[in-house]
Amino acid sequence: MQGAVEKELLALEKRYWQAIKDKDVETAMSMTHDPCIVAGAAGAASIGRDTFVKMMSGAKYTLHTFELGDAKVLSVTDDVAVLAYKVHEDLTVDGKNVSMDAADCSTWVKKNGRWLCAAHTESLLGDPYGRDRAQPAKR
Is the pLDDT of residue 85 over 60? Predict the structure, then answer.
């Protein structure tokens, strides 16, 4: 049985994903800590409000569907919690249909009674050493 914090954060995470799908910049921003740390295949960055708005407004992809599952929550304090889960995404990227599976992790902090996403990471699922994606090393 899911606890109250897990249910609340999973609902927030789904709302965040829906905002991205709908290209609803205002909803996404209302749920994002300023700045927010992000990390993934493209690297790591600290992103402030202006940069976040530009990234969402100028996205070169369209998210069609998403499905979250296998969620885990760690309540660090009453005001800090970490949510990790698997996600399946169907997108169009540069005009091509793409389906992908990833493991994501968001750190949520409660400020003035509201949860905000302060950090988010995404790791593509597959071989943990990237052998299913990487070219052989040149020696």
Answer: yes
